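Is uridine 5'-triphosphate placement plausible here? Inputs below.
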Amino acid sequence: MKVRKAVIPAAGLGTRFLPATKALAKEMLPIIDKPTIQYIVEEAKKSGIEDILIVTGKGKRPIEDHFDSVPELEQNLKEKGKHDLLRLVEQTTDINIYFIRQSHPRGLGDAILTAKDFVGNEPFVVMLGDDIMQDKVPLTQQLMERYDQTHASTLAVMKVPHEEVNKYGVIDPGAQSQPGLYDVKQFVEKPDIEKAPSDLAIIGRYLLTPEIFDMLETQKPGAGNEIQLTDAIDRLNQIQRVFAHEFKGDRFDVGYKFGYLKTSIEFGLKHPEVKDDLKAYIKELGKKLK
Ligand code: UTP
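Reply from A.M.:
I modeled the complex. Tokens:
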């Protein structure tokens, strides 16, 4: 069956980004001029996804507004002949996006469970709203291509520094059935650094079969007392094969302050409007920093 649907969970509290996230969703924080979540939606579109469900929560209304049309603004830009800006504004309305609210942020697994009716009996992708990925072929499309061959759930993983494994879900890898495609013996959420089975961490893209919902419905809270998607995937792996696909492109985690700053600088150095000024500024600043 073709993968057509994506779920973007964006209902977390974003506590690592307080006080900015008190009233504003971290997924709406801009990287230069575009909210993070728009990069995710663009990746979905490029990958051939047709329908997107965004899981939102309290204070997340601006996400809905961002993907809606703004007739007064559009009319104003039209009248002033600002066609480039009009195109930018209209870009975000030309997609099938649905919304659902997660009433309590009980964890990523619980956020995905709210998508059960939207997904139905089809394979689907989960794209975390605060993780931007870049590669020649979008990561979501890479997972979809793997699915075309295996018809099994496949998670994106990436090598991370050993001392950081306790922040992630980590896999205990088995054999590689194709280069970069691992069987998985176990999925462990936030392992102790000494006990981590590998440095291959689950990053923000998952392709899942609908059987994941059976697991999520009975999933008990795990690390951090949250309903963990990783734990449900580990149980799914006991009844059907789940693969891990190693991502070799660039990942930008914008869910914490330093990650957000790094991403803003790197994207700024590529942005046609600001790249030259930013480069000159960083060089100048570098001379002053000791
Ligand atoms: P994070 O682990 O980054 O959690 O969630 P968080 O709560 O947003 O942020 P911190 O850790 O408090 O700073 C990963 C993704 O899952 C979503 C988040 O919005 C984010 O995109 N999420 C998390 C939910 O939708 N619901 C939840 O209950 C938890």
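Short version: The chain has eleven helices and 13 strands.
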